[in-house]
Design goal:
Blueprint: E1 2-3, H1 8-11, H2 13-21, E2 26-27, H3 39-50, H4 60-72, H5 76-95
Parallel strand pairs: 1-2
Protein name: Tc1-like transposase DDE domain-containing protein
Domain Tc1-like transposase DDE: 6-63
GO molecular function, one term: nucleic acid binding
Length: 103
């Protein structure tokens, strides 16, 4: 079971074939709908950490190393905060009938 927000990456032929071949059922999800996936918050945190203080990288290898180091050091407290916020987010989405929330 997977949510599909109609993003281009989810509509690629190979992606659709992969889902079909692996018996992954997609749920219809309107474009630009709420993203309740906490990984998006982690990506944002990681980007801020990797490029902290305007840091720029001279090589792809240096950037990859910074990304891997950052991924290895995601604070447990961030993960716990994101996980504990999910029930409140779901509740608010349900109460707003899928409309805009403050998240």
């Amino acid at each position: 079971l997977k949510f599909d927000n109609n993003a281009a990456v989810h509509n690629a032929r190979l992606t659709k074939e992969f889902f079909q071949e692996n018996n992954i059922t997609l749920l219809d999800h309107p474009a630009c709908s709420l993203d309740l996936n906490p990984i998006e918050n982690i990506w944002g945190w990681m980007a801020r950490e990797v490029y902290k203080n305007g840091h720029q990288f001279q090589t792809v290898d240096a950037l990859c190393e910074a990304i891997f180091n950052t991924w290895s050091n995601v604070p447990t407290s961030l993960l716990e905060t994101l996980a504990s916020s999910m029930p409140k987010q779901f509740f608010e989405v349900i109460n707003k009938n899928g409309g805009a929330t403050h998240y």
